[in-house]
Amino acid sequence: MEFTIHNQVLLLVFVIALIMGAVANKTNFCTMGAVSDWVNMGDTGRLRAWLFAIAVALSGLLIFEAIGWVNLPANTFPPYRTANFAWLRYLLGGAMFGIGMTLASGCANRTLVRIGGGNIKSLMVLIVAGYAAYLMLWTDLFDSVFMSWIGPTIINLSNFNIESQEIGAIVGGIFGMEDTTTLHLVLGGIAAIVLLLFIFKSKDFRGRFDNVLGGATIGLAVVAGWYITGGSMGQEWKEYAEFAPEIPSRVAVQSYTFVSPMGDSARYLMQPTQLSLVNFGIMALSGVILGSFIYAIVRRRFRIEWFASISDFVNHMIGGVLMGIGGVLAMGCTIGQGVTGVSTLAVGSILAFAAIIFGSALTMKVQYYMLDEQGFWRALRLGLADMKLLPSAGKPETA
Predict the structure, then answer these.
(1) Least enclosed by CB within 10 Å: which of 52, 111, 190, 348?
(2) Is the pLDDT of residue 380 over 60?
């Protein structure tokens, strides 16, 4: 069997994802955990690790674009820099995903890492999120439920002489600049420097090497994805796909994201003999799980974990549905939009990133309030029981 350029691309994507999975497990890189640390404890170490991944991905992509090694067309997958600015889609989908990942105890990437570590709860989340994403991607669910009212809110920036939603293109379009390439590089460079200064200012970040390692690995993986698909190898890959007897799935300039691959994986599992359906995203998803599994086995950290209660099960399933639907709606997850998308300086990606954090933080605050209120009433009942004012109050709580 010939080892084609298509096979080479998929193998490289898999190996990089393998490293991502192992390092994410080792460093406990978790975007939901980053929000939790910040909201609940005021610790910004893991949040800055996430921002460091963004800074590394942004810097790497800017350098590769500047020297001509990578070219990002308008039709990347997903189309980050499209001129169709679907602001409501980014905000709503991002918020849904943020709520979902909090209920499901982790974002899409963290779900895969936890599966590799033996977490059956995360496997169930993957199944539910994958099917929800499949319905959004490969059935008429998106068109019938969302597009009728989201479509009219989409702003076509080309009507305002703005070629894309990339920040440099928007600023250049406003001021009537014909060539916005230099402006893109300048604004991106300033953003990367500001981010790095903010990140390394914190002792929470600098004090733990795993924060640096986790963020750097994720960021470099995203850069590698852009280089593989957006450079000379990617061009050869696309030319191969055009003349292939069976056109491979998702042959486009892209980098790492994990929600649409869940939907694509569900589609492939329904037709396992159709090897042309195995694409960049499916290999990325598989690589992260296997990398995490190998690390967990080697370090003896593999542990089977199941649901603690019925409510725990329900929360995770609802979270999986929201992750699958919200992730497709937002066109990415905490990695797909929060790192890969933001590295392109697309305004939609920045909106989705902010909406994910907002949705997650809001959910955590609501959960904390509910637990705090339940704790208050439980303490009151137990207190009354201790004072013999409510003799039977304590027994149901301790059963």
Answers:
(1) 190
(2) no
